[in-house]
Fold this protein.
Amino acid sequence: MIRLAELKASAQVIDDLAWPFDFDLHRADADASWITLTPSETFHVLAGDGTGGVFLAYGEGSPDHLPVLHATSEGQAGKIANNLGEAVALHLQLPYWRDVLKFSGNGDLAQMRRAATVLEADYAEDMPELPDVKARLLRALRVPVLDDPIACLHQRIRETDCTLVASDGYVWESLFNSFTIDQLRSR
């Protein structure tokens, strides 16, 4: 099991998770007073992303063992992993997971798989350093292997049992979006 202290112990791990995987442990120190979960849960901010989103471990106990919720800066939130290790594995095995959700056709697993095929090729072209950074992280950490990261992500979001509520009462929407990969291709 990956522990938060283990991630924070290495400057190289911190840097590699922040880029290219957009799981920035330095952003965990940002003000979290705006976060309210419903139903009410205690939470620990694990990391942030480059757009202002956050990753929260929520519930009682060690943040290493708690479910991880991702909240975007665009008003979407959902559970992405059962624990920190699964969240790190998701980022390494499916670094384009946010885009898979964007082109999920409202959470259709088949659409997510179609999107992943296209997105994987795009990421390989746009981020040639990705395999080397992933290999370095896999050497440094005991990352669990997700047999089917797309199905795992799909299931975790469907299991979402809490979300964020804004101060004006707005409830964050699902991480699933209505677009499909066909809409991307038609541009």
Remarks:
- The longest helix spans residues 109-126.
- The mean pLDDT is 95.
- The radius of gyration is 16 Å.
